[in-house]
């Protein structure tokens, strides 16, 4: 099986890949509940997390994945846990969650209360454990995109009365974060982002306008901030972005193809690859991939759903990969699930066995396509 290939700026392309989060095990759920109730210490919780992360890393290796993650087993949320530990950011309980279709998350939000910076972030230690456990496999780590602090957070205007200063500081904060993870040994970092999917949705853009927010302004500022953060990163640090339409208890938020943002993202964002959701009609067609104008840009097709356990037809997936080659060469494509299996600790509605079967399915299909 061909698992990687050399390119100019993106030295490692994994033909079978994954977005990152995995279903929390019963041991993790029990230990986290015990910690909340004060029955065990934070050190005892971390011991359980270490044990379970080691187990799932071994399972990923067994399946045939070359890049392994910690499943985000130390987090409750895919984004808030990381953002709350940036200098100048605080988490708080809102009383309301994020509304998905027919589901609502538990209460949580973030706010910027002081000047932004990146300091002794606890997830650096989380990565170091994964890196050690990964051995000769690549340790892939996931963090929210800088866009998410602005999109999901409140900004104290007494601290940042000017947007330009806020976005400049946000970019510098993430530039420091990228370097810190690199210094810890990270060579594969993924930025997770739901804001760009909202900017693909006419319904969500209408809601933004109703709140006084110009979607075109967000496109401009988010792209500018990302490129500033990514500038001057080490040449061997592979940074990708996952664009998500929402993933909570197998539900979703936004719909719409990539056309409204494709030219900006694929043509002007200085990144090594995109993980794109393509598991249902809400994602639209492959036509926006015509804006991929760099031969070193990897496009990871999320054609296998993480929301339900039934396995897709191999032939259907292969046919869709072939359809995508009308716009991007096969050597620039890879395959993955469309999202993680547990963007929050509650997880999607499928079993752990079905999760592993999905990932094995991805590996098997990739092995057939990229021989």
What topology does this entry show?
Layout: H1 26-36, H2 42-63, E1 67-68, H3 80-84, E2 87-92, E3 99-100, E4 103-104, E5 109-117, H4 123-134, E6 138-144, H5 147-152, E7 153-155, H6 163-183, E8 188-193, H7 195-198, H8 202-210, H9 215-230, E9 238-243, H10 259-268, E10 273-277, E11 298-304, H11 314-324, E12 333-337, H12 352-369
Parallel strand pairs: 1-6, 5-7, 6-8, 8-9, 9-10, 10-11, 11-12
Antiparallel strand pairs: 2-5, 3-4
Helix pairs in contact: 1-2, 2-4, 6-9
Provide a descriptive summary of the structure in words.
Residues 19-366 form the Cobalamin-independent methionine synthase MetE C-terminal/archaeal domain. The chain has helices at residues 26-36, 42-63, 80-84, 123-134, 147-152, 163-183, 195-198, 202-210, 215-230, 259-268, 314-324, 352-369, and strands spanning 67-68, 87-92, 99-100, 103-104, 109-117, 138-144, 153-155, 188-193, 238-243, 273-277, 298-304, 333-337. With 371 residues, the protein is an alpha/beta fold. It has a single domain, classed as TIM Barrel. A seven-stranded parallel beta sheet has the order 1-6-8-9-10-11-12. Strands 2-5-7 form a three-stranded mixed beta sheet. A two-stranded antiparallel sheet has the order 3-4. The protein is globular and about 55 Å long.
Outline of this structure?
This protein is of the alpha/beta class.
């Amino acid at each position: 099986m061909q698992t990687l290939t050399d390119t100019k700026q993106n030295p490692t392309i994994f033909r079978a890949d994954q977005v990152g989060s995995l279903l929390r095990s019963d041991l993790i759920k029990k230990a986290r509940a015990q910690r909340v109730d004060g029955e065990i210490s934070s050190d005892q919780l971390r011991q359980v997390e270490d044990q379970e992360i080691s187990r799932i890393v071994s399972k990923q290796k067994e399946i045939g994945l070359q890049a392994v993650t910690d499943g985000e087993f130390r987090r409750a949320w895919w984004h808030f846990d990381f953002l709350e530990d940036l200098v100048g950011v605080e988490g708080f309980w809102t009383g309301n969650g994020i509304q998905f279709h027919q589901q609502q998350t538990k209460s949580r939000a973030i706010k910027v209360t002081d000047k932004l910076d990146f300091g002794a972030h606890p997830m650096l230690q989380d990565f170091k454990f994964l890196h050690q456990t990964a051995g000769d496999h690549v340790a892939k780590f996931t963090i929210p995109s800088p866009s998410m602090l602005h999109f999901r957070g409140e900004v104290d205007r007494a601290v940042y009365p000017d947007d330009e200063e806020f976005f400049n500081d946000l970019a510098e904060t993430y530039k420091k974060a990228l370097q810190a993870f690199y210094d810890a040994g990270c060579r594969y970092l993924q930025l997770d982002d739901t804001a760009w999917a909202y900017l693909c949705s006419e319904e969500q853009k209408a809601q933004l306008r109703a709140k006084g927010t110009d979607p075109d302004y967000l496109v401009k500022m988010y792209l500018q901030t990302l490129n500033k953060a990514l500038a001057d990163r080490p040449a061997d640090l592979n940074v990708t972005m996952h664009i998500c339409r929402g993933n909570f208890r197998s539900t979703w938020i936004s719909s719409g193809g990539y056309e409204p943002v494709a030219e900006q993202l694929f043509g002007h964002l200085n990144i090594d690859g995109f993980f794109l959701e393509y598991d249902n009609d809400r994602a639209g067609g492959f036509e926006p991939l015509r804006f991929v104008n760099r031969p070193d840009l990897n496009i990871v097709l999320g054609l296998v759903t993480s929301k339900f356990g039934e396995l897709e037809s191999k032939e259907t997936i292969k046919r869709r990969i072939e359809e995508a080659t009308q716009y991007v060469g096969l050597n620039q494509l890879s395959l993955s699930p469309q999202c993680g299996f547990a963007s929050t600790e509650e997880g999607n509605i499928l079993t752990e066995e079905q999760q592993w079967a999905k990932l094995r399915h991805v590996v098997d299909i990739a092995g057939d396509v990229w021989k």
